[in-house]
Write the structure tokens for this entry.
Amino acid sequence: MEERAMKMDSPLKKESPWQKPLTFINNWGTVIAIIALIVFFALAVPQFMTSSNIINIMRSISIVTIIAIGLTVSLTVNGFDLSIGSTATLANSLVVSFFVWYSLPTGVSIALALLLALGVALFNAFLIVKIKIPDLFATLATMFIIEGVAMTYTGGGSISVGMPRLDGTPTTGTIPAVFSLLSQTPYIIILMLIVVASVYFFLKHTKHGRYLYMIGGNIEASRLSGIPVNRYRTLAYIISALLAALGGVVLASQIGSAQINAGGGYLMPAVAAAFIGSSFAGQGKPNAIGTLVGATLIGVLENGLVMMSVPYYSLNIIKGAVLALALASTYYTRRKN
Amino acid sequence: MTTLDMQDISIEFPGVKALQHVDFSMKSGEIRALIGANGAGKSTLMKVLSGAYTHYTGQVFLDGQLLDIQSPRDAKKYGIDIVYQEVDTALIPYLDVAENIMLDEMVNEMSGKALVSWKNLHKKAGETLARLNVNIDTRKRVNQLSLAEKQLVLIARAIVHERKFLILDEPTAPLSNRETAELFRIVRELSVNQGLGIIFISHRLPELFEICETISIMKDGKMITTETVSDLTQKKVIELMLGKSFNEEHQKHQVPIGNTYLKIDNLTDEAQFLKNVSLEVREHDIVGIAGLVGAGKTELCKAIFGENPLQSGTIYLKDKQVRNQSPTHAVKNGFALVPEERRKEGVLVDEPVYANLTAASLRKFTLPFSVLKPERERERARKIIASLGIKTPSENQKVALLSGGNQQKVAVGKWLLTDAEILIFDEPTKGVDVGAKGDIFDLITSLAEEGKGIIYASSELNEILNITDRIYVMYDGKIVKELKTQNTNEEEILFYSTGGR
């Protein structure tokens, strides 16, 4: 009787001959795609494989990766944080305003910007965990609110050195040189790698990470195992907002000013990177290394296409198509299971 | 008057003969009760009649004419309809009462037409409600109605067209006494004044004796008998439902029952489903919670475990009051729950066996800064796998790939790594094969011998009789009787579970 039950549930069901290659492509498709793209671009554009261009790619994906890693954490608990782009914008505006308007020191400005971004996280967690609005809708609302907050705070969206405030008050602050260094190589790349490594360790090797994945897998069963589900969901949104804000701070260092909805453009690439990363190495769940690989794929694609003189305004077509492919691979396997 | 005649109905599902040569006949204008224990085949029989199952053998006649029922639509055409217990799945909450009542008509009888005449729709819906003699505004949205009103809307939908036979599947389960009385008035109205034949499926015996004229009793897929109510007593019905008296040997080891371990005093939950429940669990004690489906066993288990919020009542563990505000608190306080819905609530199917086993005790497997020690986890998991006899290729296997019984062992095993003192089991043998069932029984018995307090909730009476020391019988959210297992039997438990007193 039991033997029969075992046989019925055995994983060694009849497999179609396509099953194995399909699974392989699904698991390693991202890596295969990156290698294929690199080979293709290297042959098509001689300058592509130069070391300066490779560092260029690494630098260009840093901000997306930092923001996408935050999104990855929110995805572990099955929560989709759409407000990360606006949060990055807010942090960008805040940190620049602290320098230009208030002449605060670098450390204080960064810390303060991150701290205020925590407010966004708590607001998201309140809407999702307490009020029980579905995550997508709640963070969609937050996305608009925070975009508006950033615009209102800056008085229209942009601040730069020497620009007077909306009421005409002249400003005297400058962007410290040390802050600008943050977006220079190698520091920006090191920062990205630190973020990836620490979130990888947190998710993979700590109790907290295990709990986050369990909650994402089955919230009822997790609750009934005694896991403080709401606390961990809140934690996921906090990490997501903090990393989005960090991305916004690095962005501020890069552009040296606050711009209208500067972080908004990072939402879609971050989503794409996290979803491409989910299927990486057959993990089937959001993970930090996969997200880095996903961001790399997008970065290589973008860089190579620009070098091949594809106009920048057409790139979104390709980036969108890559996202669709990544989602197809995630949901196609999920449906089969 | 119309006669319904079902002859020699048999139906099989993989591995189960759900109905075997069942005959069932009645006349319009009659109110008939159809009862039987869980799995006796009453719902299956009615699904055959209403067109939900079509792979049966046998014949259905209406006034001597052979019917060909291939779908619910065919059944309706012949004047037979069913109202299921789960009202919310059959209603569309954001449409209004009239639209819901006329739903079948709008779906099935509007071919070729594109425009809806709202005036006619409301008029016809209003007339149907008037036939039931109830007063519900047809423009009210269904999600603003009470449960009882929703049920009336469903009954109204069933009788928009002329019906000869109407099946009501456990219609009173969610209703209050007053609402039940109202429903009975409507049932009588339909049968006496409008000549419908009503088939009434229910577990609540006192109700059946109040409303029905005849009772058909089923057991193990067979029709046992049909008799008029005046010839029967509740006791007699229970005997017929169970067949011959059932006296299985009591296998439980005799252990001395110790001091009071867990005491629950006047528990009422926020949803007011449980009403002033009090019970006691002593050391070495296995306490059974018996009762039919819907009596409140699961609600009680979840309320004790902090999953369902309490309105009033206190829980004492070894004379100290504990507050289980959430399952997290409950686990800290030494409680454990093996929930009824295993795949939804008991195990994490996408996680490996070892991660499931350590889910409730993960902090025992960490270094400073919550860093995990997966080797330790796997090692302890292997021990549990061996001691519970969990059949899995390794501790890294995904739980989704285990059989039901082995999944349940995982759900139980996770609490063995905690310091749980009170273990609550809610229908732990549901969907579990015989071998694993025995293992789980042995495990529960040995846990009690070690000194844990056990609460065992089940609607399987023979299991409760086999494993427990004492039994609390629940009915309608209340504990109606406490019994000593040694001195009782299935008949007595069923008598109290069906509302006898």
Observations:
- The mean pLDDT of chain A is 89.
- DSSP finds 14 helices and no strands in chain A.
- The interface with chain B takes residues 1-2, 5-6, 8-11, 205-208, 210-211, 213-214, 217-218, 220-228, 337 of chain A (CB under 8 Å).
